[in-house]
Amino acid sequence: MLLCLSYSAHSSELAFDFYAASCPMLETMVKDTVRAASSNDPRVPGRLLRLLFHDCFGNDTERSDPANASLGGFEVIEVAKNVVEMFCPDTVSCADILVLAARDAVEFTGGPGIEVPTGRKDGKISLASNVRPNIVDTSFSLNQMKHIFSAKGLSFDDLVTLSGAHTIGSAHCSAFSERFKLDSKGNLKLIDTSLDSTYAAELTQQCGASQAQTSITVNNDPGTPFIFDNEYYQMLLAHKGLFESDAVLLDNAKSLKKVEEFANDKNRFFENWAQAFLRLASTDVKTGEDGEIRRSCSVING
């Protein structure tokens, strides 16, 4: 899970009825777009949710950083934007559309429905140099993740809760390659003993000797990869967390307790997810004159 939030302003300027007069059908248009795309490709919800954590649009700028090379879902946001522009021109930001689409992706895959405030503006600046200081990489330690989350005003509990985003979606083999090594015969061998050996064998079979390639992907959650549920935490307790950043949640008493709580109670996870999602989506947003309404999500207005 990576964080690339490049907003700045006060979330108090957001409102649940922000587009009530200017674009009353906004949420329906976004929902219909996400529903259609998800029906055609079950990987779409995971991609949209991941995209929210990156939130990096822009040609040859933030989006050009290698950490964002494997992102998907841009085309769904652009389709939604085009539909919205037909009925509400120059009114709705790509930032708001992205938050709504990610919210809908969770709900469509079985997760909780969440009412989210809107009123965000799109950034006027997009720099690749802004990416690395703001991401949580899949190989990060717990302390590294805590530092990034804390800098964004998110709590330790938010960290554990938002890690649950890995209950849907997929990742390239290179995202967890540090947990393996190539032996003299060119075969992948497990070096991270915190990973379940049977699961590790399945991963090596899927990835082969091409762990660094970006063409092969595996599901984040080996249990129910297309359903937003608490299976991620159950898999984690079974030492089947795909990333090092997943596995380290078991190494701390506080995070382990939270993992166990969510693994045993899906409703509790959903309650916490809704709250953490709102905090994430309302962190450091641009509003008012601090941003703009992009005409195209991939290009800053010029």
TrEMBL record:
Catalytic center residues: H54
Example GO biological process: hydrogen peroxide catabolic process
Keyword terms: Calcium, Disulfide bond, Heme, Hydrogen peroxide, Iron, Metal-binding, Oxidoreductase, Peroxidase, Secreted
Co-factor: note: Binds 2 calcium ions per subunit.
Primary location: secreted
Binding-site list for Ca(2+) 2: T167, D221, T224, D229
Cofactor(s) for this UniProt protein: Ca(2+); heme b
Residues reported in the UniProt entry to bind heme b: H166
Site feature (Transition state stabilizer) residues: R50
Residue span(s) of domain Plant heme peroxidase family profile: 13-301
Subcellular location: Secreted
Recorded catalytic activity of this chain's protein: 2 a phenolic donor + H2O2 = 2 a phenolic radical donor + 2 H2O
Signal peptide per UniProt: none
Enzyme Commission number: 1.11.1.7
SUPFAM superfamilies given in the database record: Heme-dependent peroxidases
One MF annotation (Gene Ontology) recorded for this entry: metal ion binding
Binding-site positions, Ca(2+) 1: D55, E62
One GO term describing the cellular component: extracellular region
Residue pairs linked by disulfide bridges in the UniProt entry: C23-C88, C94-C297, C173-C207
InterPro entries tied to this protein: Haem_peroxidase, Haem_peroxidase_sf, Peroxidase_pln, Peroxidases_heam-ligand_BS, Secretory_peroxidase
Ranges annotated as spanning the membrane: none
Job description of the protein: Removal of H(2)O(2), oxidation of toxic reductants, biosynthesis and degradation of lignin, suberization, auxin catabolism, response to environmental stresses such as wounding, pathogen attack and oxidative stress.
Similarity section: Belongs to the peroxidase family. Ascorbate peroxidase subfamily. Belongs to the peroxidase family. Classical plant (class III) peroxidase subfamily.
Protein name from the UniProt record: Peroxidase
